[in-house]
Amino acid sequence: MHPMYSSSSSGLKASYSRRGQERGIPRKCRCGAVSVIKTSETLKNPGRIFYCCPYGSKENSGHLFKWTDLSMVEEMEEVESVVEKIQVDVGSLEKGLHDVEAEMKSLAMKSNGSEIEGIKAVAQGCEKEIGELKAMIVCCEKEIQALRSFKNLIVCIVVMFVLYALIF
Ligand SMILES: [Zn+2]
Q1: CA nearest to 64, candidates 74, 48, 53
Q2: What is the DSSP string of 7-46?
Q3: 149-158, long-range: CB < 8 A, 24+ apart
Q4: In this structure, what are the phi and psi dihedrals at residue 28, rounded to the nearest 5 degrees?
Q5: Distance 58 CA to ligand 1 centre (A)
Q6: pLDDT tens digit string along 54-95?
Q7: How close is the Cα of 163 to the center of ligand 1, in Å?
Q8: Transmembrane segments in this chain: where (predicted)?
Q9: If you count Cβ atoms within 10 Å of the first and of the last residue's Cβ in the chain, which end, N or C, has fewer?
């Protein structure tokens, strides 16, 4: 029975799958002829567009027949499934990229860590040197103060000698 004259659209779909027709927009009939688009003139589906084989007819139902709108829906579903597959692929690629990024980060942190340790060691060395310098400065200040007090003492002695010389 030609699906064009089938009683329901669900019946049509079942007959398609039984026939093993390709999903989406049919390019060719199984006889090899390129599909053509025709408009239904039946009372049930007036003006409904369909793909068919140029050699097909209601008497010869062995050829291609498929509603264009159903083909479009299938085509959309095919495209959607392809898009979904691409999304999954992109998702796994993104995950892979994240893994690489995470690995790079951890590697960077490791290398930075050793660098930081090196800088810390140098800084600690600097701090030690600065501490030693500070200690030296403190020592110098003490010596300077000692020298100052010694100088004051000498000045006092000199002044006393001068005063002694002036008086006597
Ligand atoms: Zn055909």
Answers
A1: 53
A2: S-HHHHHHHHHHHTPPSSS--B-TTSPBPEEEE--SSSST
A3: none
A4: -140, 155
A5: 12
A6: 998 888 889 999 999 989 888 888 888 888 888 888 888 888
A7: 141
A8: 150-167
A9: C
